[in-house]
Design goal:
Blueprint lengths: L1 H17 L10 H5 L5 H13 L6 E10 L2 E10 L2 E9 L7 H5 L9 E3 L2 E5 L6 E6 L2 E3 L1
Parallel strand pairs: 3-6
Antiparallel strand pairs: 1-2, 2-3, 4-7, 5-6
């Protein structure tokens, strides 16, 4: 009976430890005032990303979305004093991202997108982020 009790406590501890919380804080009023689909939000996010060094930025998967025959991965963009969301358009699904597409993001939510690379596309609706590559996905 004691063995089962210790096994359950150990299992619960491992489960809690494996659940990552990606809390982030934001000092930019634009992200608090406008939604991620607004032009002001998108343009400000592009500006913020360009001001930071790559090693200061972290990206986490929030989901998968298909809209108007376009596919996106929804991401959280984090850095010191930056916490924002974006829809990253994906036109070419490589081997690293293929599992996300096949499972519509399920099983990957919260995973870190290490070495994420994208380009900035100017549109009338604001700067759009377009996927180029990712080194790995860390759950």
């Amino acid at each position: 009976m004691k063995t089962i009790k210790y096994f359950l406590i150990f299992g619960f501890t491992v489960l809690i430890a494996s659940c990552k919380s990606h809390e982030c804080y934001n000092n930019n009023i634009i992200f608090a005032k406008y939604g991620p689909q607004s032009k002001k939000y998108k343009d400000e996010l592009a500006t913020e990303i360009k001001l930071l060094k790559a090693e200061e930025l972290s990206y986490y998967l929030l989901g998968y979305k298909k809209s108007n025959d376009k596919e996106y991965i929804q991401i959280s963009v984090q850095a010191p004093n930056l916490c924002a969301k974006s829809n990253l358009i994906v036109e070419q699904w490589d081997d690293v991202l293929e599992g996300i597409k096949q499972n519509k993001g399920q099983g990957y939510i919260g995973a870190e997108l290490v070495g994420l690379k994208f380009e900035f596309i100017e549109t009338p609706d604001g700067v759009q982020l377009k996927y180029k590559s990712v080194e790995s996905i860390v759950d």
